[in-house]
Every structure is written in structure tokens, then in C-alpha cells.
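sorry for the late reply, my laptop died twice this morning and i had to redo everyting from scratch. anyway the thing you sent over, i finally got around to it. pasting the sequence first so we're on the same page, its 106 residues, then the predicted structure underneath. double check i copied it right bc i was rushing
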Amino acid sequence: MQEKILARLRSSQPSLSPALLRISEYVLNDPAKVVNQTITEVADGSGSSEASVLRFCRDIKFSSFQRFKLALGIELSTHQTIRHASPSGDVIDDTLSTAITALKQT
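ok and here's the structure:
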């Protein structure tokens, strides 16, 4: 099974540069907010540059910021669904809604 994104972020923190560590902490602090932000907003919010955000995404094995946000959104909606035991129709709607929002903002 593929390692969860948030777990991957936590485990990679000791080896990150200061700029990438700030981004990681920013994402871990409020991942649901990050899913709805642009790369510029994440860079500004974490006190880093857009290039650093992209480097961060590549460092944790995503080819782009958009793919990172999409995967993060899916992970969050899956986690939320399990926690709240939503009906299966809601799971699909929530996952698709999160994915569509992430793609529209890129």
C-alpha cells in the first residue's frame, strides 16, 4: 500500500532543508486549507518561494503541485469519510468535489 501523504511529510521532515521544512509544517498545520490554495498562496503562507513549493512537491515524489494537491485532497476526503462514516454516495461526491476544486485552482 502506498504511504499516506501526511505520514510521508512527517517522516521526511528531519532531512528537509529549512525552506522545505517550513512548507511541510505549513501543509501539516492545515492540509485542508492547502488543498484550496494556489502555489503562490502556499509559498506566501509558508514564507518560501513558488520554486521551493515545487521542489517540495518533487521531493515527496509528486511531479507537480497540482498532483500533490489532488492526492492530498483525496487522502483528506477519504480520511474524513472513514471518520464520519458517510454514505458511499457522499464519499464519491466529496472526493470528486475536492479533486475538481484542486484542478480548477491550478
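The domain at 5-104 is CATH 1.10.10.10 (Arc Repressor Mutant, subunit A).
thats about all i looked at so far, will dig more tmrw
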